[in-house]
Inverse folding.
């Protein structure tokens, strides 16, 4: 007879050293039946009750094991199938993931049926109303108030600089920009730069610009056109006499500087008494009206259309009107090292009217905000962009909520602005309630 096994103090009472292997097998079978009965008592209503298992015959050979302990002889229970609710939603999400997953994820598709017109199986976590409003694609950019880009005035007449203006001084038509050898270099209005001597027999836009200025200054006896005639020469002689110049009837290159309008001296580069000559910089000038200059990224170039109206907010919060005067593209080559070349869109905004100029007069080189409007749609139906759902067949829709049911309705999108989007669709009206992500 073998030595009795030592039983720990905390062993279960019914698992004693007197249990034989056969008894242990019977206990295991009874435990399995108890678990099976417990599972049957807690099974859901739809599940058919599992047949009561038959335990081993107490009088049978204890060497045989319970048939339930043999996996090959165990018949698993077959609960009733639950309805596959949400299967269509899963399929729809799969299609969207394959065709336009990025759009679906970004626009908040929440796993409901987005088949375009079908009913959803559950209400969305939040809702919002379709509203009617004016939608503006607007954007604010930082700008600098000043007088715009400066233009250099370079000498064409050899001699000595005898008189210079002060920085900030304004010079109008017929006045001296500076003097060389005590004789004035005169400002006249025009867009064609002076590039040659003007004398009888020559023709061109520069001749016409000269004649326009002579006429504006009160000289007459000639026809304003592009021909330099003897009558033009006579008027020039009168002008030369009044300006203290030699009365030759011809205008030598460098005696006149053409600018679009009155100028403001931005900086003086020469000194009185210094020698000057062709190509030597004397001073730089700007326009006399304040403008705003700013840079845009190329992605925002749509905002900058010449002639487009903008709003300018001054440092004191005053808003004045402006208009895009000039748009140009410039390439910054970078530093040749870590900084790569970049392209910037340079924009100049002119302030509209005397009122705007007066409001800005006390601010020079001040930071301002410029408000652009790239697009505007008046009296349109809009929803938050997050309300859009990507439809599996393509395009977008919204989830229309009516009481306890919802349906997806395809929509056409219009202008996107300020987190909202213009929409049109069948049955979509002001006040229609649509689903939103949580």
């Amino acid at each position: 007879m073998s030595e009795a096994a030592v039983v720990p103090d905390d062993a279960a009472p019914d698992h004693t050293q007197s249990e034989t292997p056969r008894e242990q097998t019977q206990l295991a079978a009874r435990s399995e039946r108890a678990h099976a009965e417990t599972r049957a008592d807690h099974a859901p209503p739809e599940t058919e009750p599992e047949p009561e298992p038959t335990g081993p015959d107490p009088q049978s050979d204890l060497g045989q094991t319970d048939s339930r302990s043999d996996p090959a002889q165990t018949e698993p229970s077959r609960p009733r199938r639950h309805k596959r609710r949400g299967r269509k939603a899963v399929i729809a999400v799969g299609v969207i993931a394959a065709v336009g997953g990025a759009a679906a994820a970004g626009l908040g598709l929440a796993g409901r049926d987005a088949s375009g017109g079908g009913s959803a199986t559950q209400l969305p976590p939040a809702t919002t109303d379709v509203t009617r409003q004016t939608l503006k694609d607007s954007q604010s950019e930082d700008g600098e108030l000043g007088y715009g880009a400066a233009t250099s005035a370079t000498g064409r007449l050899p001699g000595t600089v005898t008189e210079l203006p002060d920085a900030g001084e304004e010079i109008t038509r017929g006045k001296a920009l500076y003097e060389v050898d005590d004789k004035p270099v005169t400002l006249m209005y025009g867009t064609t730069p002076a590039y040659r001597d003007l004398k009888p027999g020559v023709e061109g836009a520069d001749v016409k610009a000269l004649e326009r200025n002579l006429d504006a200054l009160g000289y007459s006896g000639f026809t304003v056109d592009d021909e330099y005639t003897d009558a033009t020469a006579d008027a020039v002689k009168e002008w030369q006499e009044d300006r203290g110049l030699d009365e030759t009837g011809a205008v030598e290159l460098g005696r006149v500087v053409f600018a679009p309008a009155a100028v403001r001296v931005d900086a003086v580069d020469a000194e009185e008494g210094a020698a000057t000559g062709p190509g030597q910089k004397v001073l730089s000038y700007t326009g006399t009206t304040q403008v705003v200059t700013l840079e845009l990224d190329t992605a925002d170039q749509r905002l900058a259309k010449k002639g487009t109206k903008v709003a300018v907010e001054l440092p004191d919060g005053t808003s004045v009107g402006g208009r895009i005067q000039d748009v140009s593209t410039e390439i910054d080559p970078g530093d040749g090292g870590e900084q790569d070349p970049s392209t910037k869109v340079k924009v100049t905004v002119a302030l509209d009217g005397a009122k705007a100029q007066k409001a800005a007069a006390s601010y020079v080189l001040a930071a301002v905000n410029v408000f652009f409007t790239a697009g505007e749609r008046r009296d349109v139906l809009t929803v938050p962009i997050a309300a859009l759902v990507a439809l599996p067949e393509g395009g977008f829709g919204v989830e229309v909520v009516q009481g306890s049911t919802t349906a997806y309705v395809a929509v056409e999108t219009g202008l996107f602005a300020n987190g909202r989007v213009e929409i049109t669709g069948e049955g979509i009206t002001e006040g229609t309630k649509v689903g939103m992500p949580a």
Notes: The CA atoms of residues 113 and 274 lie 84 Å apart. The helical segments are 21-41, 87-106, 205-216, 230-243, 353-360.
